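User: Teach me something about this protein's shape.
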Amino acid sequence: MKSRGAVITSLVVLALTIAGCSREAEEQEPVRPVLSTVLAPTPSAYTVTGTVEPRYKTDLGFRVLGRLIARPVYVGDFVKQDQVLAAIDPTALELAVQSAKADLSRAQAQLVNAKATEDRKRVLELSDAASKQALDDAEQARAGAEASVARAQANLQKSLEQLGYAQVKSDFAGVVTMVAAEVGQVVSPGQSVVTVARPDAREALVDIGTDFPVPLHVGLQFTVSLELLPAITVAGQIREIAPEADPTTRTRRVRISLLDPPDTFRLGSTIRASFESPENSALRVPESAVLTRDGKKFVWLVDSQSKTVSLQKLELLADPSGLRVTGGLDAGARIVTAGIHSLKDGQKVRIDDGDATP
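Assistant: First, the predicted structure itself:
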């Protein structure tokens, strides 16, 4: 009986041991494959959106008051140098020219008469038939007539010049970017009627804030690309920096000269100007790697020896280039970049050889 009981007891103990081992095997976490990356310093990048603008453009208008009778150009038209862009009614100006010509003719006739009178007085004065005073008066009358002729000639030149103001001509070959008056409208002196820009000299116009990684200075290099065609890029450098920041946005207006831009960089196109500063490199983590718990930021740190993961608290700062690490991680650390919500502390992971390394 005793030997039979001992056998039964041994069998029970063996069964319990096997069951315990089975439970431990079932409770052991499986090795999970993960995507990971090794942190390395990357250059500080800054990207800002702007537009392509002409470096040279002119708002053209009339110098005299008048009613617009012609404006043969429209937005987008290419114009040549000295081409007529607009005209006002020249009637009043033409009448002024005719009046100035009549005044000049009268002054010239008076001068001829004054010279003849002077000559007669001089002859009479030599024969003592006229006094010296009479000759002096004749000379003064002739000088006054000459001054009247000079004034009439100046008035005529002024009237002719103002008649030329009845037309607005382009100072250079370019493209019309804006029209501000229609035919029949009365325009004032100095009022903008047509805006012409030179399409050959183009630049990027951007607003840069106080978060720019380096001090702004003329000549700073940028890479400029089209918003719709980012593969097309050109080099650029700062040409002009606004002396004062905008009081509302606290940004500075910056003009970036484009170096030999292609035709796809049309005036008004939206562009992106990017700047990279190798001297101000920083650690950055992808947004998919960051786990938020109780308002704090964590990442899964991979132990290269044990191939296990552990939560690592870190401090982040969002900038235009992504999430920048300001504390908690050092360069060379490997972190999990995908599947962060299904891991447990101390869990073994498998790292594929194709994982990204910056």
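Now, about its shape. Residues 54 and 202 are 5 Å apart (CA to CA). The mean pLDDT is 84. If you'd like, I can walk through any region in more detail.
User: That's plenty for now, thanks!
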